[in-house]
Amino acid sequence: MTKKRTKMIRIILRQSRWVLTFILVLLAPQALAQTDDLQAIISAIEDPYPLRSADTSSPRDSLRTFLRDTTTAVDAWRGGKPSADIDRPLLRAAETIDFSEVRARDRLAAITIDMILLKEILDRVELPSFEDIPDDEEVAEQGIVRWTIPNTKIAIAKVSEGPNAGKFLFTRETIAKINSYYALAKDLPYKKGASVGLYNEYIATPGPWLPRDLPDRLPDWAKTIVLGQGAWQWIALLSLILVSAVFLSFLYRQGARWDERHRATRPFLSFGVPLALLSAVAMAYFVEVFSTEAIGLYEFSLAVVSYIALAVQVGFSPGSSWWLPGGSLMVSRSITRGQPRSAGSMPPCCGSFFVW
After folding, report:
1. pLDDT of residue 290
2. Which of 72, 157, 184, 323 stands 20 to 30 A from 241 (CA)?
3. Nearest Cα residue to 90 out of 110, 71, 73, 111
4. Is 12 exposed, middle or buried (0-12, 13-18, 19+ CB in 10 A)?
5. What are phi and psi of 50, to 5 degrees?
6. DSSP character string of 168-213
7. Do 4 and 82 sit in the same domain of this protein?
8. d(Cα 297, Cα 290) in Å, to the nearest integer?
């Protein structure tokens, strides 16, 4: 009797184990959802209105919103907080600026840099107290449509038309000249509570593919700002271009050898050079993406890389006929000297292009 009872208990425990496992599997998604809900509740406590838009009803509100939210975003970025804690206040701050005329190739990077430069300026110049800046009542009573920060050319004006009509935003003229304004203000001392060294820190910081503290591991000379980027970033870019050029040169030579081997017997297999040159399109795209996501290029350096990548993609795309069979790259004799070109040699046009 005791043995039967023990056997029954073991069977029940075994079956209960499977039942318990099944229940846990069913409840796991709910537990994860509750964890996500908990994180959402914590975030909501820290920011009670995460979806609120920027207050741009007056010059006072627009200026206060920009200063508060950019400072919050910078502190979150420097503190290594999740991207949501950075993006949310940063997007609100961006709503206080008229970016309607920003037409850069990488618009997001251009907008971010402009916001950082504006904060750098406002962290240096003397601002009036908020009580002395027009608020909603003064705007309504006095019909104010434009306000300029004293002793500066930085203006906040009411937008008259378009999707932002009725909002007080930092004017498009201010943003168009923000680089020159920063050049004039960058030697002024920072005020108390400023985000010291933000611009230099940001442009010398790598992209999300590399550790953010990478520059801290480098010598001081590597962090020196040269033409708007850290010295280490220029070195990384030149190294990337050199490696890409060597790789493309290797592919071309291999493709030329392949074509030379099959041109006489099986001409339909002479696709080595076109295939090698088409790889330049993919390589150009990779260089551009790596430059932003890993090296962290912005402004002038990013524009240079972007236009080089665009030129490579257009020049070596299937729509460009200069490299197709019958074009200059597929001719077996040199155009310049009228002598046969060896399978491993590069045409004059590509020799200069791969040096970039």
Report:
1. 87
2. 323
3. 73
4. exposed
5. -65, -20
6. EEE-HHHHHTHHHHHHHHTTSPPPTT--TTHHHHHHTS--TTS-TT
7. no
8. 9
Tell whether pTM > 0.85: no
> Mean pLDDT in the chain?
75
Q: What is the dihedral of CA 332, 335, 338, 341, to 10 degrees?
A: -40
Q: What is the C-alpha end-to-end distance of the chain, expressed in Å?
A: 90
Spatial neighbors of 193 by CB under 8 A, at least 6 apart, are 71
**39 & 65 share domain:** no
Residue 240 and residue 185 in one domain? no
Number of other residues whose CB lies within 10 A of the CB of residue 179:
13
Q: Is pLDDT above 60 for 266?
A: yes
**Cβ within 8 Å of residue 273, ≥6 positions away:** 252, 255, 256, 259, 323, 329, 330
What are the C-alpha distances in Å from 314 to residues 1, 278, 281, 284, 308?
87, 10, 8, 10, 10
Assess whether 144 and 274 both reside in one domain.
Answer: no
Q: List Cβ neighbours of 112 (8 Å cut-off, separation of 6 or more).
A: 90, 202, 298
Gyration radius (Cα) of the chain, Å: 30
* Nearest by Cα to 200 from 171, 220, 172, 177: 220
Q: Please state whether 299 falls in left (phi above 0), alpha (psi between -120 and 50) or beta.
A: left
